[in-house]
Amino acid sequence: MDSDSRTQEPKELDLRHVMVERLMHYYHFIASLSNNTAGDSVTSTQIARLMHIDDSLVRKDLAEIGVRGHSGHGFRCEDVLEAIRRTLGFSKRLRAVIIGAGRLGGALASYGSFQQYGVEICGVFDIAPHKVRLMFGGYQIQPMTSLPIVVKQMGVCIAILTVPPEAAQDAANRALDAGVRGIWNFSNASLEVPEGVVVRNEHMSIGLAELGYRLRRGRMGHDT
Amino acid sequence: MDSDSRTQEPKELDLRHVMVERLMHYYHFIASLSNNTAGDSVTSTQIARLMHIDDSLVRKDLAEIGVRGHSGHGFRCEDVLEAIRRTLGFSKRLRAVIIGAGRLGGALASYGSFQQYGVEICGVFDIAPHKVRLMFGGYQIQPMTSLPIVVKQMGVCIAILTVPPEAAQDAANRALDAGVRGIWNFSNASLEVPEGVVVRNEHMSIGLAELGYRLRRGRMGHDT
DNA sequence: TAGATTGTTAATCGATTAACAATC
DNA sequence: TAGATTGTTAATCGATTAACAATC
Q1: Half-sphere CA count of A48, side-chain side, radius 13 A
Q2: Who is most buried in A111, B110, B111, B139, counting CB within 10 A?
Q3: Which residues of B touch A20 (CB under 8 A)?
């Protein structure tokens, strides 16, 4: 009922995780392209080179989301951007709250470019009474007791958890009770949530550990 | 020359990205298990259930890093943890600096659990003269001009970039010139780096976009 | 036209799962 | 022993790549 079918493909495609990530990269690259240099076209080979992947994969991805290119010339940037926006649903706004007014919460609150992807932060909450009412990355910190009202009134569907791990499950429970359906979890605790709730864990240390791993074994080229 | 061969497998295994992530998850789960409840054993099925993957995959992964289980009983937690530490090289300390003393930089500086994975933050840097010397997440902010000295003297090999996108390439260049070999990039700019440098981009919005995507299409179960 | 690039199929590669004999 | 769980091979599944005719 909201699958927007201006172009040829209204078919409900169920993108795997890895493809959503690629689309985001394409989007990002092309968006910065068309700001700067920008002819208004881009070829699969250009994108592929930038991302260190095969050009036919790019074409396949773009075909899948219904963009048509032009033989001999490539793809119109605007077509690609538009198709990605449509596929990922950027135009359907989602509202989010941040729970946990620590440094990380602050960083996310003042981040700003979430808008661009259709997500709007509409409140920051914290349990600590002394933090309540303080201004914080452009938001006034609210007490956890106001969470249910805000979530209901504004139709919030995402809770961004930037609380310490011990507090994470409780925060998640409150948010879910209030009506949230998705959780972006920055505490690295594993959450138990009911069926149907979408959770995305952003387990920072995993990134660092992977970087570390690659570094420790990259014996060659070292000590330049 | 430092491939630590206490157990049977000194063979240089080159883990793919996805397996490193799984190992980190195993590590994390088992570590929290053995803190709390903990018998000191764990079965492949337990781990698999927690992670929503197949139990034979767990056994395969563990076999690959040289852990032996015990038929009928599972794996000794300590064996698994030790093997993962060895494989990912946690005991080989790596030093890192944070460039960019903003909120995110602060969050990472005060994060604390990087130690656990063998990475030690040993300085925070910023270009803004008025920030220099301020205390920040336990570190005194240093001017960018001190970067080369610190990197050299302390043998720093990772730069964590928490600067705005416009400043990212420059910060990366300075860090690389100073001798860093790996970059953990939180600015979402794409960096150009010479051959052999290890870069890991932590492009926040990608996580959010993916969460959003799954949420927008999870029509069922919504509006509980 | 000649040159470039798409769209798409078939081939390849790699990762996950199923199955089960061996072990404790 | 009976029950549980490993270790491992073969089968399956899915994703990437190679190749090339069709198109502009």
Answers
A1: 15
A2: B139
A3: 209-210, 213
Q: How far is CA A128 from CA A123, A149, A178, in A?
A: 15, 19, 19
Q: What SS3 class is residue A182?
A: strand
> Does the CB of B62 fall within 7 Å of any strand D atom?
yes
The separation between CA B190 and the C-alpha centre of its own chain, rounded to angstroms, equals 19
Query: What is the distance between the alpha carbons of residues A172 and A53, in angstroms, rounded to a whole number?
Result: 38
> DSSP letter string over B132-156?
TT-EETTEEEEEGGGHHHHHHHHT-
Tens digits of residue pLDDT in A143-163: 999 999 999 999 999 999 999
Contacts of residue A69, defined as CB under 8 A and 6 or more positions apart, other chains included, come to A44, A59, A62, A75
pLDDT of amino acid B14: 77
Average pLDDT for A28-41: 78
Q: How far apart are CA A195 and CA B221, in angstroms?
A: 8
Residue A223: the pLDDT is 27
Look at residue B7 in the predicted model and tell me its pLDDT. 32
Domains of chain A and any CATH numbers: 17-87 (1.10.10.10), 94-206 (3.40.50.720)
Q: State the Cα torsion A183-A187-A192-A201 to the nearest 10°.
A: 60
Residues of A in Cβ contact (< 8 Å) with B94? 212, 215-216
Task: Work out the burial of residue B32: count CB atoms within 10 Å of its CB; fewer than 13 is exposed, 13-18 middle, 19 or more buried.
Answer: middle
Cβ–Cβ of A117/B205 closer than 8 Å?
yes
Q: What is the dihedral of CA B145, B139, A215, B14, to 10 degrees?
A: -160
**What percentage of chain A has pLDDT greater than the value 90?**
81
As a whole number, mean pLDDT of residues A22-44 equals: 85
